[in-house]
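Handoff note, outgoing to incoming analyst
You'll be picking up this chain. Sequence as last confirmed:
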Amino acid sequence: MKSKAIEEVEPIKGEEKQDSMDEVLVAFCTVEKADEGDTEAVALRATAEIAEVASKVKTNNILVYPYAHLSSDLGPPSVAIPLLRRVAELLTSEGFNVKRSPFGYYKSFKLECKGHPLSELSKTITAEKVKERGPAVETKYMVFDTEGRLSEPEQYISSCPDSEFKTLVEKEALRKGLTGGEPKYLEYCKKFGVEWEPYSDIGHMRYGPEGDLLFELIGDYAWSQANLLGIPVLRVRGTNMFDLSIRPVREHAKLFGDRLYEVALDEKRFVLRYAACHQQFAMVKDWSLSYRQLPFGTFEVADSYRLEQSGELLLCFRVRKLHMPDLHIYCKDVEEAKQLSRRVHEKIYGEIRKLGREYVSIYNTTRGFFENNKEFFKELVEVERKSILINFVPEETYYWVLNVEYTVIDDLNRPREIATFQIDVGNAERFNITYTDSEGSRRYPPIIHTALIGTIERYLFTVLDCAARAENLGERPRLPLWLSPTQVRIIPVTSNQLEHAKSVAAQLQAHEVRVDIDDREGTLQKRVREAEVSWVPYVVVVGRREAGASAFPVRIRGEKTPENMTVDGLVRELREKTEGYPFTPSPLPMLLSTRPSYKRT
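Most recent structure output, in case you need it:
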C-alpha cells in the first residue's frame, strides 16, 4: 500500500497494508457508472462468474482486487466499495477463502501466472434488469388568498379577477394546454446581437458587442441589489466542474435528476454546476464561522448548465448554459431565515415592479411547514397583494422547506419563471457547513438561496417581453435607459457640423453617458429612422443653426415633439432616470462610420 489515489478511500487497518496469497484466483474488478442501478444483481452475477472460474482452475483462494484501469467510465466510490464488499461476502458464503484489497489507494503487487488456458480472462458483468425509476412525487395544489383562506384551484378561478393568476393556475394546477406561437422578443434579440451559437452544443448563446454590454450591466445590477439587503455579502468566484465521486457533490447532484451536464475525464466523472451552490458551499465549509457573523451572504454570477430538452429550448428563457447571479444567505436558525426571506421577497417584488410588471407566484412547501408558519405566509402575500398558488409536497422529500417560483405571464399569455428563493435546511449538513453558537456548540445554518432578478438571460427576456407588451399596446418598444447600448445619438446634418457633434459627445461621455455619432453618408431622414429602429432613446440632430446655439432640439423616444435642451439639462435628465443603476462605457467606436457590420438580418 503506497498512498491515497482518491479522496474517499476505504478505511484500512495497519495489518491490511501488506498481504500475500498462493494458488489464488485474482479478480481484478472495476465498478462502472452503469452499475449504479441494481447493484445487488451485479454482485450476484459477478459472484457466480468468479466462482465458476475458481472451480475450473481448481482453487479455493480468491482475491478481489479493485482495478480502475480497466475502464474510463468509473462509478463513484459510494457505489464501488459496497458492491465489492458484497461480492466478497457472497463468495465467502459459498465456502471460498476470500481476501479483498482496500479500495482507493495506489498499490504495488507482484503476480506470477501459471500457463493455464484461463490464466487471463476478461468479462463484463451487468445487471440483468435495470432498476425502474420510482413513482413521481405526488403534490397538491391549493390557492391561498389575501384573506388567508385556502381553496381548490377549480373553485377559485371560476370567479378569479386576475387574468394573469388565472393563467398560472390553469397551466400549473389544472394542466391546461396554452396557446403557442413565436414570441415577439426573439426579433428584438437580433437587434442587439443576441443569438444561438451554431458551433456549440444546442442551447448555448452568444452576444455581440451590444448584447455583451447588456449582459455585463445586468450582472453588475444583480450584485448591487444583493448589497441592498442590509447584510454583509461577500463576492466569490470558482470553477464550474465538480467531482461526482465526492459524496456531497454527488448527493446534491442527484436532486436535479436527468438535467445534469456530465463530463468524463481522466477516469473520473464530473458534473457541470447547475447553480453556484457547489462552489459556494465547498468554499464556505472551510471557513470558521461564529454566530456573531451571521447572517451573511455569498454571491457569484455563476455560469451554470442545465441539460434541457432540445424541443423546449428558447433563446434567453430556456438554455443549456445560463448565468445565475446566485446569492446564498447563511442564517442562525429558521426564524432568522424567515425574517430575511421577507426582505428578499420584498426586493424581488420591488425589482419586477420597476419594470412595470407583476409576478404571479408558486409556493412549494410542505403542509406541516405551512400550518406551523401561516402568519409568515400571510406576510409574504401582503407583499404580493394578490393570491398565490401553493404546491404542497410530501414531508421530508426535499432539502428545503419553502421554494418560491416567481413567474411572469409573457406576451403569448404563457407563464415564465424568472426569479426564485428557497429556505434550505439540508445542504449545510450535507456539505458540513457549521457555525459556533453562543454556547460553543456547532450548528448547521439554514441557507436562503435566491436569484433576486433571475438569471441574466431571464432578466433580459423579461425586459424584452416588456417591450413586446408595449408594442402590442401601440407604444414604441424600448429598453430601460440604463440598459440602452446607445443612450444618446448625435446626427450631424452635414460634415460641417461633425466637429461640433464630437464636442457635444465628449461632454456627455465625461458624465458617463453612452453616446455615438452617425457620421455616415445618407439622408437625414434615413439616419433618424435608423436611430428609431435601433431604439435609441435620445436623438440630437445638429444642423447649422444648432451648431452655434447653447440649446438644441432633442427627440425623445415615445414623445411626439422634440424638446429643447442644453447639454447640462440633458445630462441632468439622464442622471435622474438612471440613478441607482450601474454604468458601463460603450464597447463600440463612437463614429458609426468606423463600426464593422456585425449584425445579421
